[in-house]
Each structure stands twice: as C-alpha cells, then as structure tokens.
Design goal:
single chain; mainly alpha; 18 helices; about 70% helix; globular
Length: about 350
C-alpha cells in the first residue's frame, strides 16, 4: 500500500475536478447509440468520445477490437495517473488505497499470461502493449522470467510479490489470485483505519469484500468445491460476520446460500430472488454480479452526495471511469463476435 502523503489535502479542488471529469463520461443515451452502430463504425465513434489519442497510437499496428481494447486500457491508466497527480496530502493517500487495486489486477494479468503459455511477444504486443509506458515494469518481469515461480521471484519487493512468496509449495494460479485479493484488502483495510482516514471508505471496502466473497461462493457451488476449499477463499474483514460466512461455505444451492446470508443484518438481500431466477434461466452468474455492482455504485453515489468535499467524489469517478471502459470493451468484443444488440444491451452496466 502506498506510503501516506504529507502536507495539506486539496480536497475542494480535487473533488471539483473529479466531478467535472465524471460529467464528461459517456452517458446512457450515447452508450445506447453505440449499441446500435455497426462493427466498422463503432471504433471511430468511441475515438470521438474521448479516446482518440490512444486509438491513434495503436492504429499503426493493430485493428478492430484489439486496437480499441488496447486504447481503452491505456486511457484508463492515463486517467488513474492524472487523478493521483491532482490529489495531494492525506487525500492522495486515501485515493491511492483505491487505485492500488489496479496494480494487483495487472499482477494477476501477468501471472495468467505466463501460466497460459503466452509468449513474450504476445504479451508485449497484445496483452500489455509496450506503447503504454505504465506497462514497462510488468513487461520487464515477463522478459526476465520463465514460468510462475520465476515471475513470483521477480515481483519480490512489491506488496504482491511478498504475499506470493509466502505460499507453500507450487501454488496454483487460482491460489495465487486468491492470495493477491486477500493481501490487497488486508492492506487497504489497514491503511484506511489509520488516523484521519475515512470511516465511510472503510465501510465501503468491507462491503466490497462481502460482495467478492458472495460471488466466489456462488461460483464454488458450480465448481463443486469442498467445504474446506470454500472456506480457504473467503476474504476476511467484510461486514458479514465470519461465523455466517463459514456456515455459508457449506451451502449446496444458490437458494441455501442466500438463506444463510440473510441471517446477517449486514446482508442486503434486495434483488437476490430475482437474480437467482435469472441466473438459473441463463446458466450464468452475471445476474448476481450485476446486482452487486449496482449496489456498490448506489453506495458510492450516495456517499459522494453526502460527502461532496471528500475522497468519495474522486473514488466515484474512478469507479465510473473503470465501468465505462468495461462497458466499451464488452460492446466492442460483443460486436466483433456477432452478438445481437439485445444481448449487449442486457449486459451493459449503467
């Protein structure tokens, strides 16, 4: 976790800048217009909606969905760096707690690529393009390692490298990813509990832990994991008490899991019955994931309105920006795969 920043916070200025940036994001009307466009024209339209410089950067060697996806992630990296740049003092430390998760995500991307047998050239040209200077430290790891063990060793000195080095034996990719998730939230909770930190941010992080655990438990039911395996993947520190989570790890059906979670006052069960029905119809966890995503966005929006001069407007902007990138990536990849408009519209999260 980033070291706390000294000096005065510029919370008024930073909050105003974040709100202005959020206002410029693609709204529902324009996103629905993109859904209606064809595969050939959608890239150009996305470029005109704030991604032109990054699109031009990749146009010389990439095309179609690959070029758009690379531009989207590059743009997001640029935005994260810019947000941290205009935050100062304690405010920067609080925002950095949230931004740190994107480094953990890139660590997992590197591990997945190496585990999947991707060549150095494929990783550098497609997965973590070298045009993005913020990929350079990750590409250095890729170029200097062969296999997961060497990659873990190359990450020594980083928060993610330290936790991976503590794993026993030849840990699987799944075990590594679970360990990274646990380490991120452990560090985040520790940092946000420090003096002058935000109790609202602490509550939000604990809710995120609950949501991550709930999705993982739904997934574990489908994978037929043992009770012990399910308990091992539970991230500690959420608002739902540990005894309820341990009991939930023994659930054999979605309905049984929901019923156990309802025993906790910290579990908001609104929408779960409908999501369960839809999940059974589709054979997918997407309805649960979208429901929990909507819950988090509603909480962030409420905190931003209740605390307009705080870290929350900045964190809310980051989350909305990341959501925009996710929606556009889904849209472009879906168009390239020939998915119907109705399917794309159903999976876009506003």
């Amino acid at each position: 976790m980033n070291i706390a920043q000294n000096g005065r916070s510029n919370v008024y200025n930073a909050s105003a800048r974040a709100k202005a940036r959020k206002a410029s994001l693609i709204d529902q009307t324009r996103m629905r217009q993109l859904v209606q466009q064809g595969t050939e024209s959608i890239g150009a339209s996305i470029g005109e909606m704030g991604y032109r410089s990054e699109m031009d950067l990749y146009a010389s060697r990439m095309s179609g969905a690959d070029a758009v996806e690379a531009a989207l992630f590059h743009n997001l990296d640029n935005e994260l760096a810019e947000v941290l740049r205009f935050c100062q003092g304690k405010l920067k430390s609080l925002v950095a707690i949230y931004v740190e998760r994107f480094d953990y995500d890139k660590a997992k991307t590197v591990l997945r690529a190496i585990n999947g047998g991707a060549s150095d050239d494929m990783i550098e040209t497609q997965i973590l393009p070298s045009e993005n200077p913020r990929n350079s430290k990750w590409l250095a790891i890729v170029r200097s390692t062969e296999g997961l063990d060497e990659a873990v060793e190359a990450m020594s000195g980083t928060p993610w490298g330290r936790i991976l080095a503590k794993l026993d034996g030849e840990a699987s990719l799944e075990v590594m990813e679970n360990a990274l998730d646990m380490q991120y939230f452990a560090d985040a909770l520790s940092a946000v509990r420090k003096e002058e930190a935000s109790p609202q941010l602490l509550n939000y992080l604990r809710m995120e832990i609950d949501h991550r655990n709930i999705i993982n438990l739904f997934r574990s039911i489908r994978m037929g994991m043992t009770n012990e395996q399910r308990q091992d993947i539970i991230i500690p520190g959420g608002r739902i008490n540990s005894s309820t989570m341990i009991q939930a790890s023994g659930a054999e059906t979605d309905q049984e899991l929901i019923d156990i979670l309802r025993k906790s006052n910290s579990f908001d069960d609104s929408g779960f019955d409908e999501a369960r029905t839809e999940s059974e119809r589709l054979g997918s966890l997407d309805p649960f994931a979208e429901l929990l995503s909507h819950h988090r966005h509603a909480v962030l929006r409420r905190f931003s309105h209740l605390s307009p001069v705080s870290a929350f407007p900045i964190i809310h902007y980051i989350e909305k920006k990341a959501l925009e990138v996710r929606n556009l990536r889904l849209l472009v990849r879906g168009k390239a795969a020939g998915l119907p408009k109705e399917v794309l519209e159903a999976h876009i999260d506003y």
